């Protein structure tokens, strides 16, 4: 679509004159349009704030102002990528598309030493899928003879490879080369599928050049979802935004691939720790189309202990950052500029939260201890410059994410800053050779207190220093109340933001009530 046509379509949408043909497109118009308007209004607010910061800069402390303004700039770019990601979300009818052709489907269940009772539930559900022309396979990468017996019990296929290189992708590719179904449904070992999963989504493959259909993910979670493992912002907002730009990614489970598309890129990508993200980008770069069907047909397990949670998030971050550093979407000529921006956001998000967010944690500590500030302004000027940018952003963010993005979500992201920083260091060091990979545990583990403390020591250290800085500032600063108020506010914000991760690491039961 040309820029002129895009602007006309947007103006028609604002006036309610657009021809609404997609599912829920007209019903979501009010929230969508308001979110877009506030997102655009926030750009001049940002320009004013940045101009004010530069004008009021205290260059005597350039060594703090430069990291400050650089971090603000990084998050402004992050905001622009976020707007692009959520600008227009595409939704699909839960019943899917009526198939025009009978496709044969191979159901792959890759297994690597997961508990047998969990695998059994997955296999039973896969066998019960209401689709006649399907073949279920257990892909055993753990050499467990009990799985062979299970396959024989259920009269399904069993594939065990002689060597075990390239992790899950290698396991999938070994089975891929030894099967011949038109489509492939990938189910993780702990993911129990509903019986209507195939009948609801195979119809999409009647549309030419549809490479895969990813469904929404759903998990068994403890009360209040303390770790934020439901990832509602991603599954209910971000993926739908990506879908509108033909950039919805495979999540590796509950996804149906067209064999022809995988063959064109040489099978599942073995370049990263996990196959899904890089495989998706290579498929899009070849001109294939994808669909995110925003209805869940599977339910599985999510990490419930701090060690498993951190390991999973670290692996996801390493994959996204390796792609960002060493196989950038900007290099792929087959991707549109919107697709490139969608893929760029993955790695950029981890850099923003892992490298630049901690600068905001540290600056108030420095200011309260040294009685110095990187800006020369009074309290009223600061709030006049900062508040419009902040408030309009919150409104736009709330509207564009359909109310799903809240402070708890931010706390969950911010609490992982050290994990993301570690992942960035690892990704930079691992251009050609991958770090060790292990499958995330599907059962809850009980960690020692020392392990729990080690998982949150950076958060505890920053929080303690923030608290000491607040007390020190109150005791020693008596001639500059605006300076004291601003820095106490941001130091308190740091403590409150990091408190959730510290509490979850040490006393997770508190958050499950």
What do you see in this structure?
- The structure is a single chain.
- By secondary structure, the chain is α/β, with parallel strands linked by helices.
- The chain has 2 domains: 252 residues, no CATH class; 198 residues, Spore Coat Polysaccharide Biosynthesis Protein SpsA, Chain A (Alpha-Beta Complex).
- It has 17 helices and 10 strands.
- The strands form 2 sheets. Strands 3-2-1-4-8-6-9 form a 7-stranded mixed beta sheet, with helices on both faces.
- The protein is globular, with a radius of gyration of 25 Å.
- 42% of the residues are buried.
- The model has no long low-confidence stretch (mean pLDDT 94).
List the helices and strands and how they pair.
Blueprint: H1 3-15, H2 29-55, H3 62-86, E1 105-111, H4 116-127, E2 134-140, H5 145-154, E3 157-160, H6 167-176, E4 183-186, E5 192-193, H7 197-201, E6 210-216, E7 219-220, H8 232-244, E8 255-258, H9 259-264, H10 276-285, E9 289-296, E10 298-301, H11 306-326, H12 337-370, H13 379-400, H14 407-414, H15 417-429, H16 449-476, H17 481-506
Parallel strand pairs: 1-2, 1-4, 2-3, 6-9, 7-10
Antiparallel strand pairs: 4-8, 5-10, 6-8
Helix pairs in contact: 2-3, 2-13, 3-12, 4-5, 11-12, 11-15, 12-15, 12-16, 12-17, 14-17, 16-17
